[in-house]
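To close the chapter, one final illustration. This time we ask the reader to focus less on the individual chains and more on the assembly as a whole: which components sit near each other, and how the overall shape emerges from the parts.
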Amino acid sequence: MNQQTICTLDDIIPETGVCALIDGKQIAIFRTKQNDLFALDNYDPFSQANVLSRGLIGGTTITDDTGTAKEVLYVASPIYKQRFNLATGQCLDDESIVLNTYKFKLDGNNVVANYE
Amino acid sequence: MSSTALSTENKGNLVVIGNGMVGHHFIERAIEQGLHQQFDIHVFAEEDRPAYDRVYLSSYFEHKDASKLNLVDLTAYELSKVNLHLNQCIVDIDSASQRITTEAGEIIEYSELVLATGSYPFVPPIPGREHPHCHVYRTIADLDEILAIAELPTVKKGVVVGGGLLGLEAAKALVTLGLDTYVVEFAPQLMGVQLDAAGGEILKRKIEALGVKVLTGKNTKEILSNTAPNSDDPSGDEQHLTMQFTDGTSLTTDMIVFSAGIRPQDGLIKNNPECGIEMGGRGGILINEQCRTNADHVYAVGECAVWDNKVFGLVAPGYNMASICAAQIAGDSKQTFTGADMSTKLKLMGVDVGSIGDAHGTSDGSLSYLYQNPAEGIYKKLVTTPDNKRLLGAVLVGDTEDYNNLLQLYLNDIDLPAHPESLILPNVEKPVMGIDNLPDTATICSCYNVTKGAICSAVENGAYSVSDVKTMTSAGSGCGGCAPMVKDTVSYQLTAMGFEVNNDLCEHFAYSRQDLYSLIRVHGIKTFDELLTEHGSGHGCEICKPTVASILASCWNDYVLKTELTPLQDSNDYYLGNIQKDGTYSVVPRVPGGEITADKLIVLGQVAKQFNLYTKITGGMRVDLFGARMEQLPDIWTQLVQAGFETGHAYGKSLRTVKSCIGNNWCRYGVDDSIGLALRLEDRYKGVRSPHKIKMGVSGCMRECAEAQSKDFGMIATENGWNLFVCGNGGITPRHGELFATDLDTETMVKYIDRIIMFYIKTADKLQRTSKWRESLDGGLDYLKAVIIEDSLGIADELEAQMQLLVDNYVCEWAATINDTEKLKRFRHFVNSEKGDDNVVFVTDREQIRPATDAEKATINLVELA
Ligand code: SRM
Ligand SMILES: Cc1cc2nc3c(=O)[nH]c(=O)nc-3n(C[C@H](O)[C@H](O)[C@H](O)COP(=O)(O)OP(=O)(O)OC[C@H]3O[C@@H](n4cnc5c(N)ncnc54)[C@H](O)[C@@H]3O)c2cc1C
Ligand code: SF4
Ligand code: FES
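The assembled structure is written out below.
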């Protein structure tokens, strides 16, 4: 497994995202209040623009098939406001759309991408 | 002051000693009862300021603004002829001759006397406690002293003696001040009054995880210092203190705050045994259920009073006593004090804690049910009657979601479900105590003793929102703990009346925008997280974040890209430009009134050319430059700012443009300088964040070339001044502005506009233009005129002052941003590369760029990236 340091944690204001260029791909990386990192495609399929890293982070309570309610975090596109689950890439407003997610981790103060 | 000078005509004196929270509440109730018409009211206060909110005392460390804690409206005191004597301690009472004596030796006669002297912090008699670095935590003066010491460079560590409710609050304050903080508790556990041992232990672990060191079971024998307490330099150099404990261990520190409990302030009686007023066995002033002491015409209320051997250290029972006392003096003997529920729910250093009734399970034969989740630091306990039918008490640590539910079961003696443990187990369908199950007599707000019945009838009488109910009944305006229940009760009653309303902003705030605005103002809230913790739940979302950002800006006008405000902003406010369909931004510099010099026009042209931007004259009389890539924005704006341009706020919910005709400088019909007025207005209101955008128009005569009557504010020149039109709109649903006032001079008109905008900010819903807002105002235009012109609500001065603050704090967001290297960092497309977004592609059309369509991207020659 390969690793690559992309930026430092301080480069990402808490509760916002940045866009990284990794192997020619645009990836939106988000940092939450709790300093968890999430990463999705930066490309918004609805507006067809590379903008998701500039969206607002939000939370909503969702009840799953087993009936348990839990809060999921999402990013809302800055253009037409569709929401995407940060953990899974699932679009909350259109079941048929799922974005790719990517693994990032914090190594000290470094934001590190993990890839095969 | 002599005894005769004070009383006038036949009125006697109603004298109140103490202007603390309860003493002040008494004055309000007394005025309500009309006592100010029967008596001359005199209030003597030991402190040098009128009553303030001790409950929120700790917030002082954050804002350091004593006025935010103030409870007293001095004008209201004055109107009711309440004489407030600050800085005048009463030192003697003679209940036989009905006189009191001030510190200065003046003697005042009273017809009725109310003692509201509160309590004082108990400091255990430990040798060394007089050291200047030892403090207590009760008054603003105490906090000022703590601040002064904590800010000394040598002071790095602080100890709080006492691990009760107030002690932990003091500890949090020391953490806020950046001190390495310790809590030293005599008992084997924290919060021994409210929690059982296991709950105390979980709380201790959670607090320790936050970096506060907790020492329990420590008895301080002596405090030693390396300098004598009264040396020449009492607060200057290093002054380490060493606390010696009876178990032989010790702890060094730089300062100590004692918070080891309170004692009723009864010195006045204790020091004057011949005063004829009886004290309790363990101090305090004895009262009966009418709040009367044994002496005729002498009452006691609040924390100085002892009822049934109890002192009540919370504000709610004190308020209750104050209302009863006022009623008694007014001759209504029906209302009596019958004790108070001391259940509490609070957040201590971010840890939720709740305690109801018999938390320790000491009632005969009671049963306890426990749930413990050590991984998440959750502990819950129920105490029930031996037959399992009724709730006697509860302890909740780490999760207080069940608190209100349990409290209602407890207070109203409601039958418990078959398996009471289901009330505290996670992942179990809980039998929720709906409002409909509660009797009308159930107390919803204990601070103000407001029942379900009272809230429902307020709703029936037209208070359709939580904030109206609050104004009408006071419910929810104390500690705020009952807010969710008040909200539920209001919805319950509205539903019962056949309304279907849900004005919640979103799932994270059970409040409307108006409610949030008031909360933010009243509690001086400066950040989203603070608001969310105190009044919301969950994480926040794309609806509440920008709304709150806008309210914060309307209240305090902080720079929108301040780090803690940044994540709240919509992409437009975040990048200070309007995002376009391809992810590029538009650039709209302000052109006040549409007046622009040739030089500036040239700069616009040059910038557009250099960065290859699409250029258009807008419907708002200015120039919009489109197609700017995010990473180009700082360079573009640096040039514009250098040329004297400011941001046009085309991205903000704020003033857009003041459209103007050319006016009397050139036009043969013009009767006044429309451009001059437009410049002044645009300069005054630029940047003011509001619920939606605001547009204005100024025309130099009735021909109305500026279409002022279709704007939120429209001004048309007349021979005698200006006619002001308000609440017009173009856009989706056009509406003509309504004539608000005629022939105004400019100064008066600006005042009116100040007031209307602030009143709109205060009361409008989110994204509601002035036209829709005006239509939603009960009482319509006449009401608006009454509020603004006649000042029927008495808020005109406040509105003007609030607007002036926003005007004074204006900065051009772009000028601020280009000078801030930190903020500039975010204006690049990739965090790890200087490249631009290769998906942004333009084609040339009608001699300018526009975004390429997908088909074009695939086939046509690409325009060189700018
Ligand atoms: C640029 C401009 C059109 C133009 O090329 O002329 C324009 C462009 C936009 N208008 Fe407008 N409006 C522009 C004048 C107007 C006018 C005319 C005027 O102000 O005299 C109106 C009708 C007057 C009124 O507001 O009462 C107007 C009524 C709207 C509305 C509907 C508002 C309503 O109350 O119904 C929206 C949508 C909204 O705000 O929710 C809107 C929204 C927008 C947005 C912000 C849409 C968006 O979110 O992307 C457009 C983006 C501007 C940009 O990227 O810079 N724009 N818009 C005009 C900019 C004026 C300026 O200099 O700031
Ligand atoms: C940090 C802190 C946090 C708190 N948090 C909460 C909470 O969350 N919930 C809650 O319910 N309660 C809380 N309390 C308790 C609450 O503040 C008190 O219950 C309330 O202030 C009692 O009001 P009072 O008028 O009886 O006393 P006080 O507010 O103390 O007022 C008494 C006043 O009388 C003056 N006085 C005394 N003697 C004389 C004299 N001889 N002559 C003239 N004036 C005199 C004093 O100077 C004082 O100003 C808190 C208290 C503190 C200190
Ligand atoms: S509104 Fe009157 S003053 Fe203004 S340009 Fe038109 S005619 Fe001239
Ligand atoms: S219970 Fe404190 S405000 Fe209602």
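The radius of gyration of chain B is 32 Å. Chain B has 28 helices and 38 strands. With these observations in hand, you are ready for the problems at the end of the chapter.
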